[in-house]
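Good morning,

Attaching, inline, the backbone tokens for the sequence recovery test we're adding to the shared suite. The designed sequence is right after.
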């Protein structure tokens, strides 16, 4: 639990719930979530590695133009490129597999009320205040709400049990303002 997360001790009136979203944890959604998470977590290192690889490929082209024989340089360069391209998907697959050992088939639900988010999952119930939101990302299929350095809420657009994704997008934009990214 991060420092802004508190255990839930209060009852919530059903009429106070503005949006509600729940899902059964499955591999497809978890992999998409972990892939997104690792892209956000590793964005700068991957950009630097990609730029470095582009530079190396440029150097190989220059060598080829002047020397003609780039065979010794190609094998390590191809290996480096493959490792760079597979790093994030491999990390996401590994973390998804580990997470699925603990949570496959469990329910994960979010209730959005006027001043906070209530998350109930297999580990218990937590609350996040809207002021805890660091950033919100929207993709065609989901909203990712970052509430801590390593903490995201996954809200799948088609899984609203109260409200809908269009209304929820407007709701988040009003609450988060410039923290909202589409």
């Amino acid at each position: 639990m991060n420092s802004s997360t508190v255990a839930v001790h209060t009852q919530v009136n059903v009429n106070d719930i503005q949006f509600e979203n729940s899902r059964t944890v499955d591999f497809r959604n978890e992999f998409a979530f972990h892939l997104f998470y690792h892209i956000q977590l590793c964005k700068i290192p991957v950009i630097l590695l990609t730029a470095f690889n582009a530079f190396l490929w440029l150097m190989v082209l220059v060598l080829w133009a002047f020397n003609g024989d780039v065979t010794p340089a190609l094998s390590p360069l191809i290996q480096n490129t493959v490792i760079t391209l597979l790093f994030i998907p491999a990390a996401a697959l590994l973390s998804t597999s580990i997470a699925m050992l603990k949570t496959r088939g469990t329910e994960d639900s979010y209730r959005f009320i006027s001043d906070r988010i209530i998350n109930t999952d297999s580990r218990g119930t937590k609350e996040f205040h809207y002021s805890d939101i660091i950033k919100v990302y929207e993709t065609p299929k989901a909203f990712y709400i970052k509430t801590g350095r390593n903490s995201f809420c996954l809200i799948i657009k088609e899984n609203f049990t109260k409200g809908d994704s269009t209304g929820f997008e407007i709701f988040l934009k009003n609450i988060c303002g410039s923290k909202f990214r589409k």
